């Protein structure tokens, strides 16, 4: 699943917090900042765990302000672990 998170999501520990939450849910993938000010993530794992991570992304860490989360199906990449990239 590929997700885009829009709002005040840069400079508020969003990527590190998403990584930590995803790892706690046993989800694999990556997260990165985009130049347009949004955050993009690819997540894969057990369906319910992926849903929990998307739900978490809808509010993010305490200093974030999430205006929207867009998700789209994406081919499975069999990533091991969860990392911040870029």
Q: Mean of residue pLDDT?
A: 97
Number of domains: 1
Largest sheet: 5 strands, mixed
Ranges where pLDDT stays below 50 over 5 or more residues in a row are: none
Give an overview in words:
By secondary structure, the protein is an alpha+beta fold. It has a single domain, classed as Alpha-Beta Plaits (2-Layer Sandwich), CATH 3.30.70. It contains two helices and five strands, in the order βαββαββ. Strands 4-1-3-2-5 form a five-stranded mixed β-sheet, with helices on one face. A hairpin with a 5-residue loop joins strand 2 and strand 3. The longest helix is centred in the N-terminal third of the chain and has 11 residues. The model has no long low-confidence stretch (mean pLDDT 97).
């Amino acid at each position: 699943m590929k997700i885009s998170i829009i709002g005040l999501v840069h400079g508020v520990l969003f990527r590190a917090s998403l990584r930590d939450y995803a790892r706690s849910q046993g989800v694999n993938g990556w997260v990165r900042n985009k130049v347009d000010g949004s955050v993009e993530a690819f997540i894969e794992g057990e369906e319910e765990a992926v849903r929990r991570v998307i739900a978490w992304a809808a509010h993010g860490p305490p200093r974030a302000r999430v205006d929207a989360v867009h998700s789209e199906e994406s081919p499975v990449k069999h990533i091991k672990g969860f990392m911040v990239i870029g």
